[in-house]
Amino acid sequence: MNDAQLLRYARHILLDDIGIEGQTRLLASHALIIGAGGLGSPAALYLGSAGVGHITVVDHDRVEATNLQRQIAHTTARIGQFKALSIAEAIAQINPDVQVTAVTQRADDKLLNVLVQQADVVLDCTDNFQSRHAINRACVRHAKPLVSGAALQLDGQVSVFDTRQTAAPCYACLFPEADAPEETNCATMGVFAPLVGIVGSMQAAEALKLLCGFGETLAGRLLMLDARQMRWTEMGARRQPDCKVCGVR
After folding, report:
1. What is the mean pLDDT of the chain?
2. Which of 3, 88, 125, 198 is found 20 to 30 A from 218 (Cα to Cα)?
């Protein structure tokens, strides 16, 4: 770590849980973020500012005016640009030392199989069940920790699915694909702007803890936020033996 990095990351280095060793781990790590919208924006900015050495951002959508109410990595000047490229530009303005790979393809099974294998941690910042289940399958297949977030209207949730731990569930243990409800999105239901910031920031925090190797993660716990009352509820979860994704290996 050079003098400029020692200065930039000084407040992390002062933390006993991170220190020089943890910050060095971050600089050598690779995070994969799928979704560059409301959740992906704060998650990517915090991982970039924290010094995660390589960040891959996947999103095939482009920035629209309606995104700017909550997707804080984007700007009016970047309307029409691919969101993944917009986030790469935003990270570079904060921390030009971070290597950002912007992928402007849809995150299908084939692409995820390649990208998940290359990453140390995966952040699911998407907004639909089909993508979430595809990401989960790839993470289970390659034994990669998954930090999952969701936000709609005034309700949010965040958890870590880390099947490297024997009893820890995968996403499908809690939300079986066969039981997936009808898709809803913020275009029709709305979303409270700060809510995605809260959830996305918590995803970044869990990812940094996983990369540094300190603290207790949300593996085996689902946190649910009612932003109207600003109350958190925690639900415990264990691996389901009959889960079609992680139950039988």
Report:
1. 95
2. 88
